[in-house]
Amino acid sequence: MTKIKKQKERISNGVKKILLGNEAIVQGALEAGVDFVSAYPGTPSSEVGIIFGKIAKKHGVYFEFSTNEKVALEAAVGASFSGLKCLVVMKNFGLNVASDALLPFVYTGTKGPTVIIVADDPSCWSSGQSEENSRAFAYLAHIPILEPSDAQEAKDFVKLGFKISEKFNIPVIVRTTTRIAHQKMPVEIGKTKKSNFAGKFVKDVKRFVTMPPRVLEMKEELLEKIEKIRDFAEKDKASRIGGKGKLGIITSGISYLYVMEVLKEMKMDLPVLKLAFFYPLPEKRIKNFIKGLKKVLIVEELEPFLEKEVNALTKEVNPGLQVLGKDVLPEVRELNTEKVGAAIAKLSGKKYRVSKHSSLEVPKRFPRLCPDCSYWFIFSSIKKVAPKGTIFGGDIGCYMLAGFPPHNIQDYLSCMGSSIGIAHGIKKSSGQKLITLIGDSTFFHSGIPALINTVFNKSNPLIIVMDNRITAMTGHQTNPGVGETGMGEITEEIKIDEVAKACGVKNIKVIDPINIKEFQSAIKGFLNKKEVSVIVARRMCSYWAKRLKRRK
Question: Is this structure's pTM higher than 0.70?
């Protein structure tokens, strides 16, 4: 029997299964016996929440799409304090939102083990805010971070994260990237554990309350934990060393796959140290690796965090070692085999054959809305009736495409919910007309505090809430305005116009934007009001409507 036939047989027999990285994360959590899962959808992490929404009840797991990432983490903190095993899922910008809850959680520690999935997006394939590198949070929060390099490790590292969290009573981040979340490979499938879901909160003020002077003792305890975890990392088999020679490579995550592919193509057997732990780093292992080297190449995406750490360690064990990284590799955009191959060729003196296809220029085209999307009506109406010089605010969602042709109505774009907050600042600074757009899920995520601030501090932007009845951009997840939970249970439908009214907004209209005359009339009238105005443009996402029809 050929090797390929054997592999297919193993997959069909259930020993291995071809999984996305995000699917492997779900599998790892189920094998670890997860009880409580909370998430806010954000590509490239979205599939994790979508899958749990479909299978949670079957496995006895509680799952929710939370209002935002901070709330998702806080919900998991409560479940952890009650002894449950928790998984929290978000993309990199969500970690910014959750950081207010993250730092004290690392201080208090866990009662039920907790793993936080954070998906970064080098090259900003699905991100419009920044090319954020979440590894920096390791230094800010003193939280362990594991970096899988493929789907198999995505599953294994989730289980390892729960093991570390349980052993040391500390939350653990598993950091993925787009290329890990969305790659496919055969993954070994183990037995899943059905959740018992029997939590109990036992009062312990010394453990769960972060107040001085106790909080300072907590920090000391945290730093002691980190050193114990460092010792654990030194012995862990997830990090690997191989090869021979005086030119070595230190790498982690997806960069490891690029390195190994290049070395195979170049027929080279260089020493390679593949790190599983980004923080705390196994410093002894790194020192032993670099002792006999003349040059070491640090292959990592984005900021040179590893490079700086290795540079500091060389002074102790190999002062003459030449450490190379961002002087031969870019700090912007994700890596690939061509970039890594060119760097290794430069240092080794060997040639690396670049693919003839790598220099081909792909014709560029702008992303477009779905042909029957209601936003076509909204954007065209705004353009038709807005006076010349009107400022147009943008936010995070499908309507970001307003900034591209043929619409060209987006003068600023920052982060979730910021369309309203920035609009208020502009209106308080100038007398210019301003229309800002925000989606339904984004409104619930972080638009409400900004709306309250706008009312409270008396400015008058026109806010158009694009209520398409679902969280569309990240894969049609539910939100508080839908009337259905992430597990498909019927719940209270929170109406955006009623929330706006409760926040003190007096000028409110709910309009189907396909009623063009009514919609345009409302824009004209509200633009001249002295108080903040809200139009809820309510029409179901056309793609979601088709999916619902097929489902029925």
Answer: yes
